[in-house]
Structures are given as structure tokens and as C-alpha cells.
């Protein structure tokens, strides 16, 4: 506090600058692959920032965040399809067509994942512990199979997005511009997450994690606090999903799979549970392992497993914990 | 007639064949410390949970400040004016002492609302919380994490958090548990100064503290109140001596 920066904020700033610098250098060297790789990191980190709010701050181990990630992806895919065909998504009672406008798609992704999270959370948060993990997984699997059985939107094969949606003044088709958009959204989400954790709501949410019974005896019912946090968490992950589909030009049920839910949990754990920049560190490490170890051997996930094992056994604070020391609570 | 802060009417709760609460009637009047004593397994914890809202009675009514709160959840009873301390310290362990109390003050001021302003710089919250810490003598520990507190200090923080709610009724579940003789004496003196601020239902095993503090004592045995009266009456009661006090070498 005060003007002296903590070691953690220095680590955070270095991470943020590194993520910005890498694609700038790659773009200057005309290496679009690495620009896209940086976009992947930014987007997956955003998904992780969402989950970290539920898992890290609120202690809700959701094994179903791929539902929101995929939902955001399908919002982007479905909007692009209807815009491309000129057909309507919904004809009655109000006509809703497709959209090529990125902000409209973002808004739709935020609303869709928020509403679905309220419904899933309202049921799941009646349980806790292992039951909560299993019930969020079950909901995500239901949505996965729903998408698989939806021939209008590609079923198992998924949907291609032929034209990336557009932003005013920015050429979203340019890889570097698209990265900068994702990066800006990631920073915005990190800023909002920090404000939220430091606020009254955040204090109540943390107490709901540490000791829900105590929170209730102070006059704050834990359930609505957790439900709100769960929905906000899902919204960030849903927005990331929309960006991910636009990055790849493709959305399929794989985005909704339980493996994807597991990956988002891995980002959070690798980076450091409950640490603000943990998801960024975790997603970056994950993507780097995938790109570089994966380029050398197909069994890169064996290396990932070993790294994860090492983190869980020896560095509970994850990458951020290793670099910045233990979390400070005041 | 003065309206009681707390009124229990014919409270019943059974776990299978075990009658944990068996027709309990009890009141706490304003300005009164009503102590509840009884041997282990008498149903004191069950009764506390029924009053606080964690456990629903099978039959009977809980009236708090004139309102029937029998079906109310814990948080709503707290907002009405019920402060409680736990038998086993129940705190937000990773937070500092001050943040714990700030949480209690925040709850009374506006609940969980406020997504934006950082609590750390909320002067209204800080100063009120520091004031409460000062009253229990924990000011020097304000910045320390709760996990670093001694057992006795945690007991005091329990009381501070209950006080920060500005309750009308305090439900104190063995506040002296594990305190040394010195700590017990200090807390006894402090509680005596509080009773005109909030009435108390005091569950306590330390008989010296009970006899020093209580205006009325009720004795709970096997879920029933077998005697109720002033300290002198309870001391003199043969039934109580048989059931409870007789166990102790006097």
C-alpha cells in the first residue's frame, strides 16, 4: 500500500508488458503465427480471470466453465451464420437476426452467459464441495450434448465463421489489431476484478469462501453473494469464448467439453489460485508448453502434467506465488 | 409489561429418539443477562442454533424483538439485531483483525452492496471498526492476520464482531472457553458493562462468571429447563445440585 509497489504488482506489470511486447515484435518480424499465439494467451487468460473470481475469490470450484466459454463461442458463431445467410435467429415474438458487429456480439455473449450462469448457479450453489464440482460438470455436459444434437448449427462438426465481425475504426481482421482488442479487454477485466475483490462485495465474497456461517451471522446471506459472483465470473469467461471463436474462425462442441473446463482450472492453478494475474501467468505457461514442447513431441501434456504436479506439491501459490511470494491479506 | 428481547415458546427439537429440545420456554429481558447452564449433552448447542436460525425447531416459536422469527434464515435474524459469538472461534482466518470487524460493520451499514469503492480506504468503515477494537482492547493487533492471534484474543475478536453489529440481543456461546483465569476475569468485567447496551443469553461453563454476571439462570438438562431463577435460588435448588452442580467439587 502507499506509493511503494509490492513485489506482486511488479511481477504483474512485467507479465502484462511481456504479453504486449511479444506480438509487437512478432508483427514487426512478420510472424503472424506468434501474434495469434499471443491472442490465444490473452483470451484464455480472460477466461481464467472469470473462473478465478468464482474459484479463487469465492471458493466455488466450477468444473463447468466451458459451458460459458462455449456459449460465448456459439453466440459469435450463430450471429455470424445468420448475418451471413441474412436469416433470423428468432422470428417471434421479436425478430432477432445475426450480427457482424463485435460489440453487439460481446454484449450478447455477456448476457447469455450471465443468464445461464444464474440458472446453473441457482441450483448448483445449493450444494458445496465435491457435489458442487459434479453438478457444474453435469450442467456443462448437458449443454455440450445439446450443442452436439443441434444440426442447424453444425452439430458435432461445429460452425465456421467466414468473416470476423467488425469494430468501428479498427480493422479486426488484422491479427495485431485483433490481439490489441483482446489485450485491452483482458486488462479491463483484470482492473474490474481487482476493484471487485477490494470492494465490500469482495470482502463478503471472501468471507463466504473462508467461513459462510460467520458471514450469515453478520447479517449477510452467503447464497446471493456467491450467485452474483458466479454469474459475473461466467460473463468474463463467456466473453472470452466469443473472442476465441472469432480468433479461430470456428466454434464447435469441443469448446463446451469438460476437457476445456479442466484447462481453464489448470490456468488458474498453474498461475496461482486467487492471485489477480494468476490466470495470465497460467494461460501463458500453458500455451508456451503447448506451442514449444508440443512442437517437439506430441506428448507435451505429459510435461504439462509434471509441471502441474510440481506446482500443486511445491508451489501452492503457482507461478505468481513463486515470483512474488505469498499472498498478502490485510 | 416489558417486551422481552427474546422469547421462546414451547420449543421442541428431536433427532430421532433423542429429544434435544423438549418444550423450552425462556425469555431474555432488556438489560438482562440470562445465563443458560447445563451438563454436556443437555441440548444447549441445539437451543443456540434454534435461536440463531441455523436449525429449525420441530415445534414452538422464537420471538425476537417482538417479531416471530421462527422461519427466518440466519442473516435476517442478524440484521434484526441478533449478535452471536461461537463456541469455537469462527472468523475469516486469512483476513486481518481489523478486516474481520470491518466486515461486521459493513454488514450493518449496507450488507454486501458496493461493487466499486475499495473497502481499505473506506474511512467510515475503518474508524467504526477501530472503535470497536478499542473497546475490547485489541487495537494493537488490528493489522495482524487472525491466524496469528492467541486463543484468548480470538475469543475477544468474537465478541468484538458481535458488538460491531450493534445488536439488541447477544447470544454468547461459551465466551470464556479456554481463557485463563485472568482473561475470564477481564471478559466478565467487560460483559457486565455491556448489558444495558444489549441483553444477553449467556451459555457458559465457568460458574464463577455465571454467578457474577447473570441476573437470571436457567438450567437445561436433557432438553428441559429444570429450574430457573436468580443466582441465589439456583445455588439453593436441590434439583439443580443433583443434576448438575453436584458433579462439581465445591
Order of helices and strands of chain B: EEEHEEHEHHHEHEHEEHH
In round numbers, the mean pLDDT of chain B is 89
How many E-type strands of chain B? 10
Overall radius of gyration of chain B? 18 Å
How many β-strands of chain A, per DSSP? 4
Major β-sheet annotation of chain A: 2 strands, antiparallel
**CATH topology descriptor of the largest domain in chain B:** Rossmann fold
Ranges of chain A with pLDDT <50 over ≥5 residues?
none
Please tell me about this protein's structure:
The complex is a heterodimer of chains A (about 325) and B (about 250). With about 325 residues, chain A is an all-alpha fold. Chain A has a domain at about 30-255. Chain A is built from 13 helices and 4 strands. In chain A, helix 1 runs antiparallel to helix 2 (about 30-55), helix 6 packs across helix 7 (about 200-210) and helix 10 packs parallel to helix 13. Chain A is globular, with a radius of gyration of 20 Å. The N and C termini of chain A lie close together (about 10 Å). Chain B contains 9 helices and 10 strands. In chain B, strands 6-7-8-3-9-10 form a 6-stranded mixed β-sheet, with helices on both faces. In chain B, strands 2-1-4-5 form a 4-stranded antiparallel β-sheet, with helices on one face.
Write a brief structural summary.
The complex is a heterodimer of chains A (330) and B (250). By secondary structure, chain A is mainly α. Chain A has helices at 7-28, 32-57, 66-85, 102-124, 130-148, 175-198, 200-210, 212-217, 222-248, 258-271, 278-296, 300-314, 318-324; strands spanning 88-90, 96-97, 159-160, 250-251.
Salient structural properties:
heterodimer; A: 330 residues; mainly alpha; 4 strands; B: alpha/beta; 2 domains; four-stranded antiparallel sheet; 24% strand; globular
Amino acid at each position: 500500500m502507499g506509493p511503494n509497489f509490492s513485489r506482486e504488482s511488479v511481477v504483474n506489470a512485467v507479465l502484462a508488458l511481456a504479453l504486449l511486447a511479444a506480438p509487437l515484435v512478432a508483427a514487426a518480424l512478420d510472424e503472424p503465427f506468434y501474434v495469434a499465439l499471443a491472442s490465444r494467451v490473452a483470451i484464455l487468460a480472460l477466461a481464467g480471470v472469470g473462473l478465478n473470481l468464482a474459484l479463487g475469490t469465492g471458493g466455488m470450484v466450477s468444473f463447468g466453465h466451458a459451458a460459458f466459454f462455449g456459449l460465448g463461442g456459439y453466440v459469435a458463431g450463430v450471429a455470424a451464420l445468420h448475418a451471413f445467410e441474412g436469416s433470423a435467429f428468432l422470428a417471434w415474438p421479436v425478430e432477432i437476426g445475426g450480427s457482424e458487429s463485435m460489440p453487439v456480439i460481446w454484449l450478447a455473449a455477456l448476457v447469455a452467459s450471465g443468464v445461464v450462469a444464474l440458472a446453473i448457479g441457482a441450483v448448483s450453489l445449493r450444494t458445496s464441495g465435491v457435489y458442487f464440482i459434479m453438478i457444474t460438470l453435469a450442467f456443462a455436459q448437458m449443454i455440450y450434448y445439446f450443442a452436439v444434437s443441434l444440426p442447424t448449427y453444425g452439430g458435432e462438426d461445429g460452425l465456421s465463421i467466414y468473416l470476423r465481425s467488425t469494430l468501428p475504426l479498427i480493422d479486426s481482421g488484422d491479427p495485431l489489431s485483433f490481439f490489441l482488442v483482446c489485450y485491452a479487454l483482458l486488462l479491463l477485466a483484470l482492473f474490474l476484478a481487482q476493484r471487485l475483490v477490494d470492494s465490500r462485495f469482495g470482502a463478503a465474497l471472501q468471507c463466504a469462501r473462508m467461513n459462510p456461517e460467520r458471514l450469515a451471522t453478520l447479517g449477510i446471506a452467503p447464497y446471493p453473494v456467491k450467485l452474483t459472483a458466479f454469474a459475473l465470473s461466467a460473463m468474463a469467461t463467456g466473453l472470452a469464448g466469443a473472442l476465441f471463436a472469432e480468433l479461430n474462425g470456428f466454434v464447435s462442441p469441443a469448446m463446451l467439453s469438460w476437457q476445456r473446463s479442466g484447462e481453464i482450472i489448470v490456468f488458474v492453478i498453474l498461475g496461482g489460485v486467487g492471485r489477480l494475474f494468476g490466470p495470465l501467468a497460467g494461460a501463458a505457461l500453458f500455451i508456451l508448453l503447448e506451442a514449444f514442447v508440443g512442437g517437439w513431441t506430441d506428448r507435451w501434456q505429459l510435461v504439462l502434467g509434471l509441471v502441474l504436479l510440481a506446482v500443486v506439491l511445491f508451489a501452492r501459490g503457482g507461478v505468481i506465488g513463486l515470483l512474488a511470494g505469498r499472498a498478502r491479506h490485510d | 409489561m416489558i417486551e422481552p428481547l427474546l422469547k421462546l415458546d414451547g420449543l421442541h427439537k428431536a433427532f430421532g429418539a433423542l429429544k434435544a429440545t423438549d418444550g423450552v420456554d425462556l425469555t431474555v429481558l432488556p438489560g438482562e443477562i440470562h445465563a443458560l447452564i447445563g451438563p454436556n449433552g443437555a441440548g444447549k448447542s441445539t437451543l443456540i442454533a434454534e435461536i440463531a436460525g441455523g436449525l429449525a425447531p420441530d415445534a414452538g416459536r422464537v420471538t425476537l424483538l417482538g417479531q416471530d422469527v421462527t422461519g427466518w434464515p440466519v442473516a435476517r435474524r442478524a440484521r434484526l439485531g441478533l449478535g452471536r459469538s461461537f463456541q469455537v472461534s469462527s472468523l475469516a482466518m486469512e483476513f486481518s483483525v481489523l478486516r474481520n470487524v470491518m466486515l461486521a460493520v459493513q454488514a450493518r451499514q449496507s450488507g454486501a452492496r458496493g461493487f466499486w469503492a475499495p473497502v481499505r480506504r473506506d474511512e467510515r468503515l475503518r474508524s467504526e471498526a477501530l472503535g470497536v477494537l478499542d473497546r475490547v482492547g485489541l487495537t494493537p493487533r488490528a493489522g495482524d492476520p487472525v491466524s496469528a492471534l492467541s486463543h484468548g484474543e480470538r475469543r475477544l475478536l468474537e465478541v468484538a464482531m458481535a458488538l460491531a453489529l450493534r445488536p439488541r440481543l447477544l447470544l454468547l456461546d461459551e465466551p470464556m472457553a479456554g481463557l485463563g483465569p485472568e482473561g475470564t476475569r477481564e471478559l466478565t468485567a467487560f460483559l457486565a458493562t455491556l448489558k444495558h447496551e444489549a441483553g444477553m443469553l449467556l451459555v457458559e461453563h465457568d460458574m464463577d462468571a455465571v454467578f457474577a454476571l447473570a441476573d437470571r439462570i436457567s438450567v437445561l438438562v436433557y432438553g428441559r429447563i429444570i429450574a430457573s431463577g436468580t443466582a441465589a435460588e439456583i445455588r439453593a435448588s436441590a434439583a439443580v445440585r443433583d443434576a448438575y452442580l453436584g458433579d462439581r467439587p465445591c
